[in-house]
Every structure is written in C-alpha cells, then in structure tokens.
What does this fold into?
Amino acid sequence: MKFVQRAVSLLALVGLCLTAAAPQAALAAGGRTITVATDATWPPMEMVDANKKIVGFDIDFMNAIAKEAGFTVKYKNTAWDGIFAGLSAGRYDAIISSVTITPERQKQYDFSDPYINIGQILVVPKTEGRVTRIADLVGKAVGAQIGTTGAFAIKKVNGVELKNYDEIGLAFEDMAAGRIAGVVCDEPTAAHYALQRAEYKAKFKIVGKPFTSESYGIVVKKGDKALVALLNKGIRAVKAKKIEDKLRKKWLR
Amino acid sequence: MTANDRTRPAIEVGDGAAIPSKSDIGLFTAWRFAFFGALGLIVYLALAKPDPYLEILKFIPDGLLVTFKVTVGAILLALVIGLVAGLGRISSNRFINGVASLYVEIIRGIPLLVQLFYIYYALGRFVHVPDMASAIIAMAFCYGAYMGEVFRAGIQSIPKGQMEAARSLGMTKGQAMLHVIIPQSIKVVLPPIGNEFIALLKDSSLVSILAVADVLRRGREFASESFTYFETYTVIALVYLIITLFFSKLIGIMEERISAGR
It folds into this structure.
C-alpha cells in the first residue's frame, strides 16, 4: 500500500514539475533558445557551485548577452576533451568555456568577437625557489588541461615533459601530491587555485606575469553566420553598458 | 539411379577423420578476417591519406609502449595477488579466508575507473607513488580479485581424490598443493587467465584518465590539437583491435600446445 502511495505522490510531483515548466517554455518562445556547452571545471570562469548550478564569469557574461540580444540559453556541462567534437556533431549550438581564439581553431570553427583578454601563467609549488618561466623546469613534468593553450605552450618548451589532464583541478591535485613540478593555465584559474583555495594557498605560488596574450571567444559551427551576428550584437551591448566591468569585479577581483 | 551412380559418398568413410580438425576449417576464419582486415585497413589509410592517418600512427608509438608496460606489469602483479587471494579463499583458516573473501568482494564491487581515481588521487594525498607505478598497482589490485576467483575455481576443479592420494603417500598439505594440485589446475586456469589478460589490456585504456600517456591518451592529445576526432579514434580502435586479436591468437596457440601435452 505504501508503495502505491509513494508512486502516486511521485507521479503528482512529476506532473507539478511539468506544469511549472510550461510557463517558462512559453516565455522562451519569444526568442530563440540556444544550447551552449561549457566545461564547468575552470573556476572562476565556469564551475559548478555547491547547489550543482553552473556559475562563473562566462556564464554571467553569456546570460547578459542573451538578455541584450533577446534569446534564451540552455547550458550543457561537457567534458573539455571532445567539447569541439560535440559542436561539430551538432549536440549544441555554441561553446562558451574560456576558449582562446587561435588560428587553428578558426580554421575549423567560427568565433564571436573576443569578449575578454587573458594570458597563460605558470603555477609552481612554493618549494620551487628560482623558477621564473617554464624553461626553468627542464627535466621535470609540467601539467595542463588536455587541448588547452596552456598545454600547447608547455609543448613548445624543449626538455619539459607535458602531462595532459582531463580537468585542470586534477593537475593541481597531482602537483599537491608531488608528481609534477608546475601547472600552466589561464591567469584567473591559476589565481583561483593558487591564491584562493584554502588547501593550496600555503603550497603553491604564481610565477611572474602572464606570458601570452589571448582573447576568449564564443565558438559556433563553421558557417553559422546568423548566430555569430546575434552573439556579436549581444557582446557589443554588454560592453557598451559596462556590464563586463561589473562581472570582472565580481569574479576576477 | 542406382547406388553406383553416386560419384561421391555423402559421408566420407575411410582412414581420415569425418570431423575436420580446427586447422582445416579454411582460410576465412573470423579471426583472420578481423585481424588482416584491420591491419590492411590501417595500412591502406596511412598510404592513401598520410595526413592525418600516418601522422596519428607516428604520434602514438610511445603510448603503445606505456600501454604494454601497464598491461604486462599489472598482469604479473595480478597473478601473484590472484594466487594468494585464490589460495586464501579456499583456506580452512577462518581469518585468512575472511580477509581474502573481503578483498575479492570489495574489489569486485567497485568499478575499475573509481578504483583508479581512488588509488591515484585520493591516496596520493598520503603516499606519493609515481604515476606509472600507481596505475599498475591499481590495475593489478582490481584484476587480482578476478584472478583470485579464477585460481580458486581452478584448484577446486581438481578432484578431491587427488589430494587424498597425495596425502596418503605421505605428502604434507602444502607439498600436495605445490606438486599435485597446482600443476594440474594450471591447465584449467590458463584459458580464463588468457581472457583476463585481454580484458586487462583493453581496460588499461582507463589509465589515460590519470594523465598516464598511453595509446588512448596520445590519441586524445592528437585529436584535441588537430580536431580530427573521427580519424584519430578510427586509428585508436584499429590499433587496440589488432593488438587484442594478436594476443588472443597467441593465447589460443599456447592453450592448444598445453592441452596437446595432456
């Protein structure tokens, strides 16, 4: 009997959820709904918070664009390794995930206008005294997330072993375990792990200034000109309204 | 039509065997088709479209070496762990039996991927083990449990009379185990151990999650830079297929040799 009661209440709950979702769907009908992939393992740009919600600078920025350009966004948390393949396969319309605009990527995909400039930076354990750049770590292993501009930067340095991780957090964890001598990633992410995380603050330090200058863009399928135009319209409006500065203060200090 | 009109009898009755032996089945066995098909396809792709296929093939050899090292290291360690666990499982000593059974039950209940993460990252906080070693240990720990069950089944398949006969000849329990039971059970356990080896070879691809640069990791690195996902994973799949087919044949030949020596 109890089982029946439970099943009935469960059904009622599902029904409630459906009816609750209906007005939202009607609301979205006004504009286009765009599915956006993000690899939410790159704090503070995109991450999953304690309530299992995807948050971060990129997410707020995307929401602001959507509001200005008049469309609805649906996020899809996707592993970085394969996030581009998923776009090619049509699993989503766009990627906002701290994607640096590079010539190689531009050959395969289209980008929106740049929305923020950032650089790659090196993080090492505090015990590594005299390290000022990646080349000082010759003979040692340096970690990065697979397929990121940080990984490409390490690969260019002769004599340094590149270790590719699925998520940048795993690279920092491995550095804490003493298996690698450095991690290269985007400056805001480096700051998040090296300066803000309680468990790493005493262990890691950021070395010098960013050694690259990169621009993030929103990625869409090659030839999706309409979506690029829509995104660019949103980005222009967001920049004009100085929303970007507010978001910088909120997420990047 | 008389019986004499038949040019060929329906059933051959003569000196030869009516049922063809394994090697007589013909040129087109499924194994040959798959193995040489995969090999041919990979060579064809590399020649017909060097970019990216040949580039991918040039990119992965050191990953192949890592895959071999992990597989061979893990299988050797797993054999030792498995033998100990298997003997423990049939031990009449309650404590040893309990510990071995607990190990087998726990390991078999946790996915290999979770074990890899656990041993590498969670235990990495307390003990600093190099990445390759911890990958091998994690794989061996997992497969040791399955091997333990293989050894247990193999030993238990030897009739009780063998042990009784050995004991009546004045052997101790240990001597009987070492000289009579285990040698006989090796024949029984060899095929399932071969299976475990192939399974471990395939599962070794999971260590790529630990930033260990095996074949899969090398492939993913290549794909993530060149965006040639289809081509890269086609090559990776073919490479794994060729290796596993090669080893399954090798194990098959070994089994035949051993059963022929019966």
Observations:
- Chain B has ten helices and no strands.
- The radius of gyration of chain B is 24 Å.
